[in-house]
Specification:
This protein has 28 helices and 13 strands. By secondary structure, it is α/β, with parallel strands linked by helices. Helix 15 packs parallel to helix 17. Pfam families: tRNA-synt_1b (PF00579), TyrRSs_C (PF16714).
Length: 647
């Protein structure tokens, strides 16, 4: 049977001296930063205890969701501060109590969760808290908390004691001291009984189970104080009553050897051993929305549910009225430094310096410093992107439907040229997954919320210029394709890069885009005519289609083909020939050549075996260009004769 550890230590004393020299107690620091909503117990007594010895605190969370979200951070931030100031802290995951469900602040009962879902949620949250604590260690050191070893921390699961709790022991030790009148008078019970769907016995006993958690940790881990959200004040008070009752009535129940440490001569719990609690404020934005929500959806700490990029973006959108408060609550940045940052921010709010600091600090806390630095750079790129910087991000959405929840940086998608060229921009937004329907695409443009990029100064390194989509015509689309891509921006920050490829390339990569199947059904000849007949020509790799499928062929060369009898033995020559075939197919396809016309062109080019040879007899881009010019002239003649139009 464990006993409470001595709160005295030389390290703690040194830390306390340092705090006294700073003339601010830990409680004062927490109050100044806005962490304290209510204190259950005497405020001055708590302040005195915090400065005189190491205290034990805990904050808990029930795994009723698949991940922690941003709103969960606030009570744990108090734990992080107390830990770095030398106190003993416990993070508790309610593996057992989640099966009951906390009714606090609710008018309806929680939906029952399958056991497999509960187990998955528990494992995820337990691992998240472990990772969060590792980040807290490094984050604290960067902010000057070099004596973090003064504090101790534990991560616990209440299943480890509640799963083996004997119901008779529970009723005997705790049940006798809990009065129904007091329990029925609490706001949670009255509101749910009078305004909600009623309260089950399981929900009614939830505060007792939470009280037993506290008693177990008080006895075995030295936890004297509980930290909770603003809706947990009633549960905290109930837990305080439970711990006091059991401590004062447990002498005859096999744990009397510890009571001397807790009780005074009259059998009452000592003042400096009395359980206490504090709640953090209910955090809302300046517009009244609950913090940690975006359009009603939680901002998750799991990167597979809310990417680091999106988490950064959410914090970057914090209003100027909120950002200073958030910096105090969700970072370790000193308040005087926050004041300086806010002063600089006020001089040029458009740079959002305070918001960038907030987002970087929270990302470091949640996902680590490397991820924070990487994500900040991605966002800075998107504020004034260049084509080269966007191309370096290779997070292409393989499905092509625009959904890429775990992406970082600009989201990317691929579209076939037939869904882009001479197509209204409202439809392009739909095909790219930016709008869910064509009508929504039109509405987005009408509201002025969509921008498209044009090239700035010459060179990929130059910044892109964004222009609002308004009255641009379908025949202007080609002018917005920069080196094979179009770059859209929705609002201030959301950038979508659309790579435009040939239809045959798109299909050979098994990609999909909204509206593509419908387009193929309406234009079967364009899609199937020439391109599906090319393998019969016996071109290099069999056909240009194969060129797209096998970008880096094996072997020392190509077999002979109608296009060339020259074997290609180097990667450079392979790339040149592939580019030639690509241009050839593109030209023929856009001129709607029939297979007969295509063969006739090849026959007229009787000198093709020398294709690609420059003056030195070697394959070269200049040689390929010469042949392509000849081929283009021949195809142009067919175009004039047949009257077909350039698509």
């Amino acid at each position: 049977m464990s006993t409470r550890r001595s709160p005295q230590s030389k390290r703690f004393h040194n830390n306390a001296v340092k705090q006294q020299q700073q003339k601010k107690s830990v409680l004062t620091v927490l109050e100044e930063r806005g962490y304290i909503n209510q204190i259950a117990g005497d405020r001055n007594a708590l302040d005195r205890l915090l400065e005189s010895r190491k205290l034990g605190f805990y904050a808990g969370v029930d795994p009723t969701a698949p991940s922690l979200h941003l709103g969960h951070l606030l009570p744990f931030m108090v734990l992080f501060w107390l830990y770095h100031h030398g106190h003993r802290v416990v993070s508790l995951v309610g593996g057992a109590t989640a099966r009951v469900g906390d009714p606090s602040g609710r008018l309806t009962s929680r939906a029952k969760t399958a056991e497999s879902v509960h187990d998955t949620n528990f494992k995820t949250m337990f691992a998240q808290l472990g990772g969060l604590w590792r980040n807290v260690e490094a984050y604290g050191q960067r902010h000057g908390f070099q004596d973090s070893s003064n504090g101790t921390r534990e991560l616990l699961d209440n299943s480890s004691w509640l799963d083996t709790l004997n119901i008779l022991d529970f009723l005997k030790l705790m049940g006798n001291g809990m009065r129904l009148g007091t329990m029925l008078g609490r706001d949670t019970v009255r509101n749910k009984m009078e305004k909600g769907d009623g309260m089950s016995f399981a929900e009614f006993t939830y505060p007792l189970l939470q009280g037993w958690d506290w008693w177990h940790m008080y006895r075995h881990h030295g936890v004297q104080l509980q930290i909770g959200g603003s809706d947990q004040y009633g549960n905290i008070v109930a837990g305080m009553d439970a711990v006091k009752y059991i401590a004062q009535n447990s002498a005859s129940d096999g744990i009397g050897s510890q009571t001397a440490e807790w009780l005074d001569a009259e059998g009452k719990i000592k003042e400096d051993m009395s359980p206490m609690g504090l709640t953090v404020p209910l955090l809302t934005t300046s517009s009244g929305e609950k913090f940690g929500k975006s359009a009603g959806n939680a901002i998750w700490l799991d990167r597979s549910m809310t990417s680091a990029f999106d988490l950064y973006g959410f914090l970057l959108r914090s209003s100027d009225d909120d950002v200073e408060r958030y910096l105090k609550l969700f970072t370790f940045v000193p308040t005087d430094e926050i004041g300086k940052v806010m002063g600089e921010h006020a001089k040029d709010p458009g740079k959002r310096k305070a918001q960038h600091l907030l987002a970087s600090e929270v990302l470091e806390l949640v996902h680590g410093r490397d991820e924070a630095i990487k994500t900040r750079k991605e966002h800075e790129v998107l504020r004034a992107p260049s084509l080269a910087s966007l191309k370096r991000q290779d997070k292409t959405d393989a499905s092509g439907d625009g959904s890429n929840p775990a992406s970082s940086g600009a989201e990317r998608t691929v579209l076939p040229s037939s869904l882009v060229l001479n197509t209204p921009f409202s439809r392009i937004l739909y095909h790219a997954g930016i709008a869910s329907t064509k009508s929504e695409g039109a509405r987005m443009i009408a509201k002025g919320g969509v921008y498209i990029a044009t090239a700035g100064a010459p060179g990929e390194g130059s910044k892109l210029d964004f222009h609002q989509l308004r009255d641009q015509k379908p025949n202007e689309v080609a002018g917005y394709i920069i080196d094979g891509v179009m770059v859209f921006r929705v609002g201030k920050w959301k950038v979508r890069v659309v790579e435009v490829v040939e239809d045959v390339d798109f299909d050979s990569r098994s990609l999909h885009a909204p509206g593509w199947d419908e387009w193929k059904a309406i234009h079967p000849q364009k899609h199937l005519g020439l391109l599906h007949s090319l393998p019969s020509l016996g071109l290099a790799f069999g056909s240009p289609i194969h060129l797209f499928q096998f970008r880096r062929p094996s072997g020392s060369g190509f077999p002979a083909s109608p296009l060339s009898a020259i074997p290609l033995t180097t990667a450079q020559e392979i790339r040149q020939r592939a580019a030639f075939h690509h241009k050839l197919v593109k030209l023929a396809f856009f001129h709607d050549l029939t297979l007969i016309q295509y063969n006739d062109v090849l026959r007229k080019l009787h000198h093709v075996p020398a294709m690609g040879n420059d003056d030195d007899g070697q394959g070269s881009p200049r040689g390929f260009d010469k042949v392509f010019d000849r081929l283009s002239d021949e195809i142009g003649r067919f175009d004039i004769q047949s009257g077909s139009s350039f698509v």
